[in-house]
Design goal:
Elements lengths: L3 H30 L1 H13 L17 H31 L5 H7 L1 H25 L14 H17 L2
Length: 166
C-alpha cells in the first residue's frame, strides 16, 4: 500500500497525460470533422506565402497540393496514434495508481510513448518544421508556434513528473 503523498505524486503526471491525450483527441476530431480549415493552415505554412519571401529561404517552400495533403494526412495520423496510445497509457497508469513501485514503473511505458509522440508532433513538426524550416514565425497570420510552446512545456513537465514518480 502506498501513502497519500505518493498517490498524489502519481496523480499529477496521470492528469497531465490524460490532458495531453484529451487535447490530441480533440485535435484529431477537429481535423476529421473540419479538415479544410486545418489543411489551409498546413498549406499556408508549407507554401511560405505569408512570410517575408526571402529568395534565400523560398527554396524551402512546398507548393504541391499533393505533398501538402500528404503532410496533413501524416500529421493527423500521428496525432491519432498519439491519442490512442495516450488513452492506453492513461488507463494503464490509472489501474496501477496504488500498485507497488515496480508495477508503477512498468505502467509508465505507454504514457511515456504518448508524451514522446506529443513532442514529435508539437515540437519537431510544428516548432522545428513549421516555425523554423518554413519560417512561419515571419507570418502575421499563419504561425506554427503560437500555441506550441505551452503544449511543449506541459508535455515536458509531464515527462519529468512521470519520471520522478515512484
Amino acid at each position: 500500500m502506498i501513502d497519500d503523498t505518493t498517490l498524489m505524486f502519481r496523480v499529477a503526471p496521470l492528469l497531465l497525460v490524460a490532458g495531453t491525450t484529451l487535447m490530441a483527441t480533440i485535435v484529431v476530431l477537429g481535423n476529421l470533422t473540419d479538415p479544410r480549415s486545418n489543411m489551409q493552415f498546413v498549406e499556408r505554412i508549407m507554401s511560405m506565402d505569408t512570410t517575408y519571401r526571402s529568395p534565400r529561404l523560398m527554396w524551402r517552400a512546398i507548393t504541391s497540393p499533393r505533398l501538402q495533403r500528404l503532410a496533413f494526412g501524416c500529421i493527423v495520423a500521428l496525432e491519432a496514434v498519439l491519442a490512442v496510445i495516450g488513452w492506453i497509457g492513461t488507463i494503464v497508469l490509472a489501474v496501477h495508481l496504488r500498485s507497488g513501485a515496480d508495477e508503477w514503473h512498468d505502467a509508465k511505458f505507454w504514457a511515456l510513448v504518448a508524451l514522446c509522440l506529443a513532442l514529435v508532433v508539437w515540437f519537431l513538426i510544428f516548432d522545428v518544421g513549421g516555425n523554423e524550416w518554413f519560417a512561419s514565425w515571419q507570418s502575421d497570420t499563419w504561425r506554427a508556434a503560437d500555441q506550441t510552446p505551452k503544449i511543449n512545456l506541459i508535455t515536458l513537465a509531464a515527462i519529468v513528473l512521470l519520471a520522478l514518480s515512484n
